[in-house]
Amino acid sequence: MKSYPQRFNISRRAVLSTLAVLPALASPFSLISSQAQSTRSGDPLPSWNDGPAKQAITTFVKETTDQASPKFVPAAERIATFDQDGTLWVEHPIYTQVVYCLDRVPAVVEKKPELKSVQPFKTVLSGNREAMAKLSIRDLEKILFATLSGMTVTEFNAEAKKWMETAKHPRWDRLYTELTYQPMLEVLRYLRDNAYKTYIVTGGGQDFVRVYSEKVYGIPPEQVVGTAGGTKYGYGKDDKPFLTKEPKLLLNDDNAGKPEGIHLMIGRRPYAAFGNSTGDRQMLEYTVAGDGARLSMIVLHDDAQREYAYGPANGLPDTKVGTFTQALYDEAKQKSWTVISMKNDWKRIFAFE
Amino acid sequence: MKSYPQRFNISRRAVLSTLAVLPALASPFSLISSQAQSTRSGDPLPSWNDGPAKQAITTFVKETTDQASPKFVPAAERIATFDQDGTLWVEHPIYTQVVYCLDRVPAVVEKKPELKSVQPFKTVLSGNREAMAKLSIRDLEKILFATLSGMTVTEFNAEAKKWMETAKHPRWDRLYTELTYQPMLEVLRYLRDNAYKTYIVTGGGQDFVRVYSEKVYGIPPEQVVGTAGGTKYGYGKDDKPFLTKEPKLLLNDDNAGKPEGIHLMIGRRPYAAFGNSTGDRQMLEYTVAGDGARLSMIVLHDDAQREYAYGPANGLPDTKVGTFTQALYDEAKQKSWTVISMKNDWKRIFAFE
Asked: I need a labelling partner for A68 at 20 to 30 A (CA). Which of A26, B112, B154, B249 fits?
């Protein structure tokens, strides 16, 4: 069994750069803003500039939904999968879920005071960013296990939901759920309007993403595939059964784990897949390897002004594992995956712009 | 990690009684007959006799779908889960999938001739039913692993599909897929017509059931939760990726594994659940423990004439683990699960009657 952190693909450098900009642990309260709606004009993708990326999406939908087309796909088989971090919302400077785990440390220590003077909890509690930046992967593993397991499923859902309603991204001072990409929300809706079942297939925690997926993306919990830990069935004092989250990895939903997870949870090969990093490589390969019309698309973060620019494909150093490498870029070209340039293909990035 | 056979709940006695009635390995060819449709009259459950079981179903649907009802459930949350073996189709004298595995042995040995003289394969090939009946659980485990893993997902699907189109049940001389319970097919359709998402939650193999679930039950592969093995992503000579079925258990979807599997694969607690054996106990408990209107129902096999009568609740000896025990019957009464008597509640059992 592999352990959680391996799949979170966090390098110490990423943590270092993150901690410098993290907000204080306690976040101000505010409510989730309502989701921006794309205009229901004739154009289903109004936030996209005309170009090969937009064209690839609309052509794919037309070809697979027109009964007269040789590439027609029956409605029941229309499956589309989306990576989350960096594909549907901002992943920089660090995955939102890792921020959540760090934020949960005080509450965990309150319940288990013996951890107060134990590393790495002592360091996280100190608030000393320089010391936190030096935490090892092993330390982060301890933090993830301590904050993502040991509670009931109901308790976890309530905690994560509450956090998502208040925690903000330091750069924009906005809720993380506002930092979804408006052009991708339009793709989700466009595909669903054409009878596609849309799934999130994320390296992030399945239970975490399920807490907000319906509200934020219109994707129900049962259509979220992610890295998943086990649960344990037990009984309370009142004889009522409940499930407890266990520190045991069932599905490492990244890299080859993505097509494996798709087989486990969906059982069909997707017709369309969207990603943005080497962690999505196998999902994109697996999707286009199917018969008939298949669409694999990959988001290139090349817009430092409106969002971020990172990865060797931008001539920038690789700041973390799992980014858009030159090798991935080359494979995209070779295998006819369509690259989405945030800078050139997206009229706007966020709904609030 | 537990191994496959533990969850198949097969006792040697069950195997013994089965082998006596098994058809020859090679089955005559025929096509899957079209599914009988329930009449779309005013009565959504025409194969049910009036009584508390039918009443429980219709009351539940009315209460949870009427917006004026205090027990109204939003459409997006309407989840119903069904055990398969003994709940949706015949499980006697032995699980269909085990018959499949025994039937696959000659093909496996053809590819690996070294197994020919190795036990338990030698015994299965001999066709000596008396010797086969003496196979141990460990032997059966070897057969299940050999016949359910090692091939690509595509190969497995093709093999299982072909078998399902030809193999017949010895008692009725009909395809196994014809031995679905007509009253339960009506319940599935009735729930779906009322915006419920219907899931199979089976102790049987997830990949096996997914092969025919859409055709037989109208349930798509992604709504089948079952005992699942891992897969491994790899590349062929042409650089095309494929998934290979591994002899590794990921989800043991029986007993406590059912609510755990429901959490993993669906992420929501069902509003309605249907089962027939101790393997369904935790799923039924978990379902009714939720807030609001919840329905847990359990099929009692008390009709030896039209189907089978078995289990202590019928005053009969327990011929296998996982049957309808007296303790389960008592819990059903205590927890307000509704017992479905095949003999009294069902006008007819099969569509072909």
From this structure: B154
